[in-house]
């Protein structure tokens, strides 16, 4: 498989460059999770980094990526079927029924 040296920004991995495996489309994964073992023997802490464009190419296409630290973790994904009803209240907004 092909890999690409990808820089990490923010968090404990700030300034490091790691080889990241590329997918079938030639892009690295959207999120990169790094498990860090607990020295006391507890459950490992997982650092989450999100893929963002490093710079735009000549015609507006992104050829290179970098990872930025996401302290809140990975966003929850929900299947988006064409027949699904949208959420009544967008995340982060108050509903009138809440008072």
Largest sheet, order of strands side by side? Answer: 2-1-5-4-3
Major beta-sheet overview: 5 strands, mixed
Instruction: Give the total of beta strands.
Output: 5
Give the count of helical stretches: 0
Distance between the termini: 54 Å
Helix/strand/pairing category: mainly beta
Helix proportion range: under 10%
Average pLDDT works out at 82
Shape: extended
The poorly predicted ranges are none
Oligomeric description of these chains: single chain
Radius of gyration: 18 Å
- Proportion in β-strands: 35-45%
**Secondary-structure element series:** EEEEE
Supply the key terms.
99 residues, five-stranded mixed beta sheet
Fold and architecture overview:
The termini are far apart. The chain has strands at about 5-10, 15-20, 30-35, 45-55, 60-70. It has no helices and five strands. A hairpin with a 7-residue loop joins strand 1 and strand 2 (about 15-20). It is mainly β and about 100 residues long. It has a five-stranded mixed beta sheet, with no helix packed on it. The model has no long low-confidence stretch (mean pLDDT about 80).
